[in-house]
Design brief:
The complex is a heterodimer of chains A (about 110) and B (about 110). Chain A is about 0% helix and about 50% strand. Chain A is mainly beta and about 110 residues long. In chain A, the strands form two sheets. In chain A, strands 2, 4, 5, 6, 9, 10 and 11 form a seven-stranded mixed beta sheet that branches. By secondary structure, chain B is mostly beta strands. Classes of the chains: A mainly beta (about 110), B mainly beta (about 110).
């Protein structure tokens, strides 16, 4: 039972470098979300998707882009990394909208930008 | 908009003590309410949920009752263990939004 898988688990970037975080779910969920978790800030929504080919901005979208070309995958891109993007990133998915079903989370990606 | 307010932590308890973590919410309509737990180095996982007023969710000795009159969903456990040390998130799902709303999380530390 893979559930939600995030790759990579750890990454160190230099300021200005780019990278893509991959989230894959095998539960046929329609809805997928990217969050960042920072000390004292809880979870903050970056972007989300309500289905294949759709994306929308969340609370803190600046500096990030996303794509959902396949239903099972949700990619988060950083075009030019900044130290303020040092964080733990979590992907989540739900079968129905957030009001109807539990969210399944990946294990997280710990990103450090130096 | 929807919001969830949790008590700030950390909450520090001795093993076998009684636990309460307060959670109140603001939402339109009749949301579903959730408690998630995050163990060190892991993602969040569902602990329990309730979908309508007066429902009680329970799992692993934890309980929470959906109180519409006080807009609350407090988490309780009668006797905590060291293995319960984690961060606990209260969350709601509203019919008007695709997106679950999370509280800021409450860290629980249980000492032997």
């Amino acid at each position: 039972n893979a559930g939600v898988t995030q790759t990579p688990k750890f990454r160190v970037l230099k300021t200005g470098q780019s990278m893509t975080l991959l989230c894959a779910q095998d539960m046929n969920h329609e809805y997928m979300y990217w969050y960042r978790q920072d000390p004292g800030m809880g979870l903050r929504l970056i972007h989300y998707s309500v289905g294949e080919g759709t994306t929308a901005k969340g609370e803190v979208p600046d500096g990030y882009n996303v794509s959902r070309l396949k239903k099972q995958n949700f990619l988060l891109g950083l075009e030019s990394a900044a130290p303020s993007q040092t964080s733990v990133y979590f992907c989540a998915s739900t079968y129905l909208g957030g009001d109807r079903s539990e969210a399944f989370f990946g294990q997280g990606t710990r990103l450090t930008v130096v | 908009g929807d919001s969830v307010t949790q008590m700030e932590g950390p909450v520090t308890l001795s093993e076998e003590a009684f636990l309460t973590i307060n959670c109140t919410y603001t939402a339109t309509g009749y949301p579903s309410l959730f408690w998630y737990v995050q163990y060190p180095g892991e993602g969040l996982q569902l602990l329990l949920k309730a979908t309508k007023a007066d429902d009680k969710g329970s799992n692993k000795g934890f309980e929470a009752t959906y109180r519409k009159e006080t807009t609350s969903f407090h988490l309780e456990k009668g006797s905590v263990q060291v293995s319960d040390s984690a961060v606990y998130f209260c969350a709601l799902g509203s019919g008007g939004s695709y997106i679950p709303t999370f509280g800021r999380g409450t860290s629980l530390i249980v000492h032997p």
